[in-house]
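Action item from last week, closing it out:
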Amino acid sequence: MRVWRVARSGLAALAFSASMAQADSLADALVGAYSHSGVLDQNRALLRAADEDVAIALSTLRPIISWSGDVTRQFGNSTTAASGFTARDIGSTSVSLGLSATLQLFDGGADAARAEATKETVLATRAGLLNIEQNVLLRAAVAYFNVGRQQEFVSLRQNNLRLLQQELRAAQDRFDVGEVTRTDVALAEAAVAQARSNLADAQRNLAQARAEYANATGRQPGRLAGLPRLPKTTTDLANAQAVAVRNHPELDQARHQISANELLVTAAGADMMPNITLEGRLGVSETFGDQTSSETGSIGLNVSGPIYRGGELTARERRALAVRDASRGNLHNVRHNVQQGVVNAISDLVAARASLLASERQIRAARVAFRGVREEATLGARTTLDVLDAEQDLLDAETNRISAQADQYIAAYSVLESMGLLTAQRLKLPVQIYDPAAYYNLVKDGPAKLSKQGKQLDNVIRALQID
């Protein structure tokens, strides 16, 4: 059995043109994040540890067979009147071997309840792993769009700097022929200096965005393929919240934690019940010296139970009740947080869409205004300051559009995450999907080290080890 299974290739939510085939796409970023995330590796290992807890808990319901061995050498002399007070060696060597088996017949269901609780803990841990997967993929998506945003900002600032340098040369030429004053030239020089400063800031932000991308995906960003098609999502708040309540892994995790804690309450109550154990023993002993040997065997029932343990058992039961109540309160909080997350994500998406439409209209108006002001300035009807102000308005509008466009994509993927739908399997990423049940199925029966299943498990463990 493989712990990994191959997912269906392709990423239906993303579409890319053939001309961008060699560029880094959003799919590349998501695949990189899923395949190279240390956080995912860490929590997959923690899930495997939780799987082993099930095997440990189930072992208490199975027979326990043990062996023992002993070799003893005795030294001594014996002197008696019958032997004429002559010392006689009475040393001897004895060897004994024993085999014992114990099977718990009844404990009020305490161990069985604890075993079921560990199974619920495994399911909660799986849900937690899925939630971490969502966070990893969302971080990669945000990093991808932020790199694209900052690259656009750098290009925009570079173009703005070139345009302002042209404006500075034009102002200098007009000053040379007496059309403008030295003030106009100084304004243009100040604008160029500010543009250089803005470009340096944009380049710094791009470097930081690239570092975040490398951290999130395990690879340095190359030439980006551009914006993919927006993922299909919804802005229907009630419908989105209903989907989130059904699917979000945080809620699933909280529900399984409640189930585990309820089973632990049952186990704590059953600890006050008597225990009935079936015990069997076989033994062989041989004493060299007096040449005696014996073979023994026994089988019996052992019944025991608590009478007074200083209040420990009742305290443990009350503690289990309190932990269960706390997990119920946590479910209440998680449900409200998930529903609020849906509201926040959809609100961001709606706002980003509105901002994008507004910025496009703003760009069209600012471009017309800038061209008009520049023409009027050549005729002497506008000052250099008017031209610079119009240029800044156009730059601000273009900046707003770039940000709104990136924010729209980030918000769309945030909506998917808030609904519990941002997973590698749902996105159909071309990766090997980690199957959390495969390892569990290998270890739940506690295979022996030298058995066929145990050797197969060793091979799986070696394959999963992180260098």
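Closing note: The radius of gyration is 37 Å.
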